[in-house]
Design brief:
alpha+beta
Length: 534
């Protein structure tokens, strides 16, 4: 009786325990890459509350991302935790727990089956492609946006289908505001609200009275959207966000990204890429198999096929903003794009599994047994993917702890920094900010976007001057990655033996522009080394 009365509390506590049990190694991680950039912005923040909404993440009005509530959230974190990464990682796991709990609430309301809702929430908790989103503090805008998205869906669904209480409607607007002002990918929530009205809302019928009532209900949503686009345009110079320039994408490329995001729910790189490539090369067979799969799902759902259509359309709508980006073609980088859509994917998966087992006359016990096996498999994959982030964290620690003397009066050029380990971030950006925050020294110069490419356990770089040029190279064929040629005020940097796939090369050639003296800082054997050019 007590268990049933306080079921929501027990479920939240259990989900919290699972989240922290699976991802507890992340609590020992430090910061990665862009994290230091945001830390520097948070420390130097001199903006008032109003300025948060009228400037971009950098505090100015020209380009870059817009997310005032994320920025406010991060500034508050900085005031609480400073340079202690532990607190930020705690917040990541708590946000993940909140999202999984909202999944439980929504599916429970949608299906009237607590155990199906519980399974869907657990699937979301341990889905292997969430590793990067939880290990990296820099992905917090995705987490905050997803909290806003699923929270808005839950409260709006509750308002339209169950309660009709305007308090629930008001709460849905609050979550829309939270999500949209954290990341622009939440803009598609308006389409989800329409689908709720169209498919499942009891009060929605095609009559003049109901349409008028619905339009009045959409008016606050419309105003929130218009205000968002206005402030985003004011703060970044563009209202388009992730959609800017999307016309250059063909329908086929968008479809392929949809397939790759969906495949990423099951598999990681390189299998994700191989699955997508196979589907592209066997388009007719792929369409035929897709039709068979959809027909079978409709068949097992039987009279409740509208539920599947409703959820599938929501999934498609949630994916739309991520169709205009792309995954890294040589590692797992970019898996955060699947984080928000996975909310609705796990719901479809848990519900399809229920109807499939029910079709074969299996009961609740069979469903829970099969779900448990799948959960154990997911956990094993999730844990196996954590190794890359452990290695990346070790590299960051080695760089932060490097003891080299740099002059603040001479330009510093960072070259060949480790970019990532199998997609796990290291130091693509934020190196100057790290030096200022961790070592309390302000440097000037440039970070060259040519990085070490980790395809080996130990990475040793040799430095040599040949004629008037300088060379960085190692024993591996594909040791570096980045632009084939990058021109800077300090010189020209060129990848040697450049290969287009993966943008990799065997070394880096540096031709100086005679801006001397110069401090070249490069990475080798887990730490930084300096070469002074007089």
């Amino acid at each position: 009786m007590i268990l049933r009365k306080y079921i929501n509390i027990w479920v939240f506590l259990f989900l919290s325990c699972v989240v922290f049990a699976v991802y507890y190694p992340f609590l020992q991680f430090g910061f990665f890459s862009d994290d230091y950039h945001m830390l520097a912005i948070a420390r130097d923040n001199q903006l008032g509350f109003w300025k948060l909404f009228t400037t971009n993440l950098l505090g100015n009005n020209i380009g870059h991302s817009y997310g005032p509530l994320y920025k406010l959230f991060f500034i508050l974190e900085y005031k609480l935790f400073g340079l202690s990464a532990f607190g930020y990682h705690i917040m990541n796991l708590l946000l993940h727990t909140v999202i999984s709990f909202f999944i439980f609430l929504f599916v429970r309301l949608f299906t009237k089956r607590i155990y199906v809702a519980f399974v869907a929430a657990l699937f979301f908790v341990v889905l292997p492609n969430h590793t990067s989103s939880l290990a990296w503090v820099g992905v917090q805008p995705h987490l905050l946006a997803t909290v806003g998205y699923i929270g808005a869906v839950y409260w709006y669904y509750r308002f339209r289908v169950v309660s009709g209480n305007w308090r629930d409607y008001f709460l849905s607007l609050i979550f829309v505001f939270l999500g949209l002002w954290s990341k622009d990918t939440v803009i598609t929530i308006f389409g989800v609200f329409f689908l709720i009205d169209l498919f499942v809302a009891k009060s929605f019928v095609f009559s003049c009275k109901s349409i008028k009532s619905s339009l009045l209900g959409y008016l606050p949503l419309f105003l929130i959207g218009v205000l968002y686009l206005y402030f985003r345009s004011l703060s970044t110079g563009s209202a388009a966000g992730v959609y800017n320039g999307s016309s250059i994408f063909s329908f086929v490329s968008l479809l392929l990204m949809f397939v790759e995001i969906t495949a990423n729910m099951f598999v990681s790189f390189p299998l994700r890429f191989e699955v997508t490539s196979w589907l592209l090369n066997h388009l007719v067979v792929s369409l035929f198999l897709g039709l068979i799969l959809l027909s079978f799902i409709f068949f097992i759902f039987k009279k409740e096929w509208r539920k599947f259509v409703f959820l599938f359309l929501i999934y498609c709508v949630s994916v739309i903003p991520f169709l205009f980006v792309s995954y890294n073609s040589i590692n797992n980088e970019g898996e955060r794009y699947a984080y928000l859509p996975s909310v609705f994917f796990v719901i479809i998966f848990a519900l399809s599994l229920y109807y499939l087992i029910n079709f074969f006359k299996g009961g609740k016990k069979v469903y829970l047994f099969v779900s448990t096996l799948l959960l154990v498999l997911m956990v094993s994959f999730a844990i196996s993917k954590q190794g890359a982030w452990v290695r990346a964290n070790d590299l960051v620690s080695g760089i932060v702890d490097t003891q080299i003397e740099l002059s603040g009066d001479i330009p510093v050029v960072f070259i060949g920094l480790p970019d990532n380990v199998l997609g796990a971030q290291v130091f693509r950006n934020g190196i100057f900010e790290m030096w200022r925050l961790e070592k309390n020294q302000r440097l000037f110069g440039e970070r060259i976007p040519l990085y070490t490419f980790f395809d080996q356990e130990n990475f040793f770089v040799d430095f040599e001057k040949i004629g008037d040029d300088y060379f960085f190279f190692s024993g591996s064929k594909t040791s570096f990655t980045g632009f084939p040629i990058f021109e800077s005020e300090y010189g020209v940097f060129e990848l040697q033996d450049f290969e287009r796939r993966g943008n990799v090369g065997s070394g880096i050639k540096f031709s100086s522009n005679e801006v001397l003296p110069l401090q070249l800082v490069y990475f080798s054997n887990g730490q930084l080394y300096i070469k002074k050019i007089e």
